[in-house]
Amino acid sequence: LRVLKSQNTKRISYYYDEEVANHYYRGEHPMEPQRIKMAHSLIMHTGIYKKLSILRAKPATADEMKAFHADEYVDFLERVTPETVLPPPEECFGLGENDCPAFEGVFRLSAISAAGSLEGAAKLGLGNCDIAINWAGGLHHAMKSQASGFCYINDIVLGILELLRHYPRVLYIDIDVHHGDAVETAFLTTDRVMTASFHQYSPSAGFFPQTGSLSDVGRGKGRNFSVNFPLSKGIDDASYKGVFEPVIEDIMARFCPSVIVLQCGADSLNQDKLGGLNLSMRGHANCIEFVKRLSVPTLVLGGGGYTIRNVARTWAYETGVLVGTDLQPSDLPVNDEYYEYYAPDYKLDVCAAADKKNQNTVRLLEETKIRIFENLRSIAG
Ligand code: ZLM
Ligand code: CA
Ligand code: ZN
Question: What is the percentage of the chain residues whose pLDDT exceeds 90?
Answer without folding.
Answer: 92
